[in-house]
Amino acid sequence: MIGAVSGVCFAALAARSISVLAITPHFFRISSLVFAVVAACLSYLSFRAATSGRMDKASFLRGLSGGVGGALFGLIIVIIAYAMFREATRAYFAHLLGLHFSQVTIMRLLVALLFLGFCAGFVLGMQKLRER
């Protein structure tokens, strides 16, 4: 279930980032393209883990520990980015997804990166166990 939900979230982020590229082709940024590719790859891995991953206790615990590590990584990214760049961090993420500056608050950014970091860590933890 976690893999399927994270797959949908990453697919929505990839679509949002691609729509920014399609709507404003004269204002092309490579960061939106890189974000779209990474989100699409994580979406694929999430759906693959959801459909063909093992669901025993050890693999679930491995996925959860990877998810906690990913959430910690997301928290560190937000704290460092906000400490170094302040409001430019909000503007960067707002432009990356085609949102208005006022729609991206630090609290929303923190929650989003915690959730997405958890999902990415969970999926990557499940993939490592499945490949053994």
What summary fits the major beta sheet?
none
Determine the mean pLDDT. Answer: 82
Series of H and E elements: HHHHH
Radius of gyration: 16 Å
Give the amount of beta strand, in percent. Answer: under 5%
Describe this structure in words.
The chain has 132 residues and is an all-alpha fold. The protein has 5 helices and no strands. Helix 1 crosses helix 5 (106-131) and helix 2 (30-52) crosses helix 5 (106-131). It is globular, with a radius of gyration of 16 Å. The two termini are 22 Å apart.
Tags for this model:
single chain; 132 residues; mainly alpha; 5 helices; 0% strand
Describe what is shown at a glance:
84% of the residues lie in helices and 0% in strands. With 132 residues, the chain is mostly helical. The model has no long low-confidence stretch (mean pLDDT 82).
Chain-wise SSE layout:
Layout (H helix, E strand, L loop, with lengths): L1 H22 L6 H23 L4 H29 L1 H11 L8 H26 L1
